[in-house]
Amino acid sequence: MNISVFIIECIIMAVLFGILVFGMLFTSPLTFISDYPPEIQEEYYRSQNREATKKTLSKIMAVKKIAALLVLLFLFAWMAHKAGAETFVQGLLAAYGYMVVLAVFDTCFLDWILFANIKRIRLPGTEHMEKEYHQKWFHVKVMLPLLPVFAVGGAAIAFMMTWIW
Q: Exposure pattern of 155-165 as b/e (b: 16+ CB <10 Å)?
């Protein structure tokens, strides 16, 4: 496998992911409201005189999410192939690496640095909650359980990569 290609792919992927996430947040800070720490969510709902509601996943949204997942599976399989992965194990390691890099980028850069310090993307009524927006441990606790899930996704991607190429 070509490590240089893998690193370049990771950098491009992280930049595009960051642009997508912050583009959505700048459009509407409510986009990822369920990803905010609970104290921030509670303060938002209290200050806006709203009740927290769990939205059920509509059929069209479920189809969109499945389609996006399939596109990501194919994209990561293609990226692993382009990085020179030839075996299932190489594809698994590359795919797992892509997901871990995105998770670490999301946690350490987007959540800890940008999310915590850009006031424009704060939920209305929570602009004063400096301490709550700077909770590093909250974001780590959310990421850690995903690591085994990434292994399962990596296996699916590696299977797809070896099957197609």
A: eebbbbbbeee
- The model carries a pTM of 0.87
Name the helix (H) or strand (E) containing 97: helix 88-104
Question: What tens digit of pLDDT does each residue of 46-61 get?
Answer: 998 888 776 777 888 8
Q: Which tens digits make up the pLDDT trace of 118-156?
A: 988 899 999 999 999 999 999 999 999 999 999 999 999
d(CA 137, CA 73): 29
What tokens does 50 get? 């709203």
Can you give the length of the chain in residues? 165
Q: How far apart are CA 109 and CA 4, in angstroms?
A: 22
Structure-token pair, residue 53:
């509601």
At position 11, the amino acid (one-letter code) is I
